[in-house]
């Protein structure tokens, strides 16, 4: 026995009210009404990702400064979605910030002849744009290919898609997780130890700052890293301090003038330090003519680019 669908909606309720009014005025008796349900197409567009539909990327990390393509699919090497039973027309709404360094997003045939290289060249490739309908998506399984350029140290950002078919019928959601860079910049402390720990009034010189006698102030690993320091506007960096530097903590020259130390870089607040090598670093602070109050406390915080 075929099961019939029933629909109730606000328009139907309004119709019943109007029929009742007409009946009362005209004396006509309504016998019954029939509602005809919507009938879907035989074609479907489905995903195997369980909710929340977090996609898996390949690669799982990217090099800072790199450009290229990244694949997204469901876990366990399953395609992102599958169209079956005929062609489907659907559109996607982006949410969460599809933005630089991302440039374009594509779908392509998951098991096609070409599944690597430039997104546009992959089998069955079609560009996905916010709110733009992809007409007659062929019945295949698909993955995503996202293109990006010049990745910063913060990596690739999170974004998501909601897919709809004709008539704004919701299909499913896909979430594209943030992808880190292969390089990191880390520290083992928040309060630094300084040497010397006291200075003479009227003196000039340099102060070294690091986490401890054996631990550097911070370490960059896995490749070059770009970051932006901030230490002005109320952080306390003021006279008698003059300049702030970083240098290689275990370099050949770790004493004397800050500028002469191994891998020395002068820091300026809000100015990005680009492509710092994968090394461990300490700070060197220069000062002149210390007053009776000594050297003031200040702090530095670092942001990714």
Structure write-up:
This protein is 6% helix and 36% strand. It has 305 residues and is mostly beta strands. The strands form 4 sheets. Strands 1, 2, 3, 4, 6, 7 and 9 form a 7-stranded antiparallel β-sheet that branches. The protein is elongated. It starts with 9 loop residues before the first helix and ends with a strand. 22% of the residues are buried. Residues 1-9 have low confidence and may be disordered.
β-strand amount: 35-45%
Main β-sheet description: 7 strands, antiparallel
Shape call: elongated
- Derived from helix and strand composition plus strand pairing, the structural class reads mainly beta
The count of β-strands is 21
Task: Count helical runs.
Answer: 1
Low-confidence stretches: 1-9
Distance between the termini: 64 Å
**C-alpha-based Rg, rounded:** 31 Å
Chain oligomer state: single chain
Order of helices and strands: HEEEEEEEEEEEEEEEEEEEEE
Q: Whole-number average pLDDT?
A: 91
Instruction: Give the proportion of residues in helices.
Output: under 10%
Task: Describe this protein with a few key phrases.
36% strand, seven-stranded antiparallel sheet, disordered N terminus, 305 residues, 6% helix, mainly beta, elongated
